[in-house]
Design goal:
Elements lengths: L1 H11 L9 E7 L5 E7 L3 H13 L1 H11 L7 E6 L2 H14 L7
Parallel strand pairs: 2-3
Antiparallel strand pairs: 1-2
Helix pairs in contact: 1-3
Length: 104
């Protein structure tokens, strides 16, 4: 599913500039009727802008996806910003500011 979505975004969808945003994960429901697509990027504001643009065009993306995958039903798509990398960066910065002390 993830690879097919990447192909759709790379080759079929011409009106969205992805910049440095990328699909980090796709969670598909057990019945294959729903897919949550997580998007992340180096710049949080840019990645959230991309998520908004993809969310607006999810019907067209779903149509293109249906032509690329062979499933009985093409899942409804829901694009979400994946803040895992941003949270990890903030934790790392906090740890650098306040290194843990060994109080044994």
């Amino acid at each position: 599913m993830r690879d097919a979505l990447v192909e759709v975004l790379r080759f079929d969808l011409k009106d969205v500039t992805l910049g440095l945003a990328s699909i980090t994960e796709v969670e598909v429901s057990p019945d294959l009727h729903f897919a949550r697509v997580f998007v992340s990027g180096l710049n949080e504001e840019e990645a959230q802008r991309v998520v908004g643009a993809l969310q607006e065009r999810r019907g067209r993306i779903r149509s293109f996806l249906g032509k690329r995958i062979r499933l009985r039903y093409t899942p409804e798509l829901d694009f979400k910003y994946d803040d895992t990398a941003a949270r990890a960066g903030r934790i790392e910065a906090l740890l650098k500011e306040n290194p843990p002390t060994d109080e044994s």
